Amino acid sequence: MEKLWSLSEGDRAEELDQLLARSRPRNSAGVEVTGLEVLRLSPPMSKKQLRNQFQKEQGKSGKFGFRRHTAGTTGELTQVSLDRKELSRMLGVRDYCFRHYGVKLGQREARLWGRPESGIKSWVKNFVMNRRVFHSVGPQAQSEVVELLKWQPDYLYGYASLLLEAAQIISNMDIEFDPPKCVVCTAESILPAQKAYISRAFKAPVAEEYGLTEFDVIAFECAEGHRHLVNPWVIIEKSKDHGCLATDVSRTSQSLVRYELGDHVNLIVSGCTMLGAKEVIHQLEGRSINRFAYLSKNEKFHALEFARAVNRYQLKSGEAFEFTVYQYQYGCFLLETSSVPAKGLLDLSNFISEYLYSVVGVCVNIRSTSGNVNKDPASKKGYFVQEMEIDHDN
Ligand SMILES: [Zn+2]
């Protein structure tokens, strides 16, 4: 893997071309992809097409080594099959990313996950993986976090919102502990200020991971803060009409050719060579469905602006809280925070209004309240909830 990344772009393309000639995955039109040229001409593949293909192949032969499945962002089930070699390649990519922070695969992992796992099966799995699951929300949150620190994990892994909860608990406690080597956050979008807060609380670097069940890790953050593409066997291309497309040139038990990633990924080329490819994910849009805030029927702005505004506020005040923005009517927004900011809710509302005025040039009505922000990480709804009925004619 490291050899592949050390090659020049042209040499790597040649390697991938040869790999395709051997693995010959089928594109969504059923044509064998025997090289990069055929790949360029292949149509995109949707989640639905992948699902149909899986069912067809399953009918043909019953031999699959490993399976993973996901409900994803749309709630539709995706099934992925892997043979032993493909699984070990995926684990290799993960190991490569972790080593960047001095962590080896198989070292102590403290995992902050959504639902509590129970049963002998998950207990065995966690034991084998040298992993323990902790819950940083609920009545036991504080004792769970204390337990976590006492266990001295090599690294933490989990949903950003749950890591943030744990970080807040630590900040409010006077406790000595050996810091982990790294904190890896996954699955949810996270603000730079929130990342900095988690890093301060755990006294460790924070790395963002971007992955999909179909491919496992796609991008991983280097120590300089870029989210580099890290799997040398996965080709990511930009497409005008279909967002980003991903092709796994090595996969033989299942064909993933120009597969639509579904998330709004924006790629740029960085000069950084610390990890994986020079291509890095510049902007990763939240995994939510409706990302527009409406001022009137015809005027809208991207909900990302709320995240930018809150990020600025948090950088200025040195605080970190979670938030959700709701829209019930045109031009009016309700900002719900997990705790009351030190300077009060009105101060926050005014700050957000002023920021938005500078961006959209219109006075936006913001009301802030403190309450239960959307804490179900499994829903991946993100920070913006559109509650209005919108005509999608534009
Ligand atoms: Zn970098």
- CATH classification class of the largest domain: Alpha Beta
C-alpha Rg, in Å? 22 Å
Strand ordering within the main sheet: 4-3-5-6-7-8-9-14-13
- Mean residue pLDDT: 83
- Amount of helix: 25-40%
Low-confidence stretches: 69-77
What small-molecule ligands were found? zinc ion
* Helical segment count: 11
Structural class: alpha/beta
What is the third-level CATH name, the topology of the largest domain? Rossmann fold
Spell out the CATH superfamily of the largest domain: ANL, N-terminal domain
Return the domain count.
2
Q: Please tell me what the overall shape is.
A: globular
**Largest sheet geometry:** 9 strands, mixed
Distance between the termini: 45 Å
**Second rung of CATH, namely the architecture of the largest domain:** 3-Layer(aba) Sandwich
Strand residues, percent: 15-25%
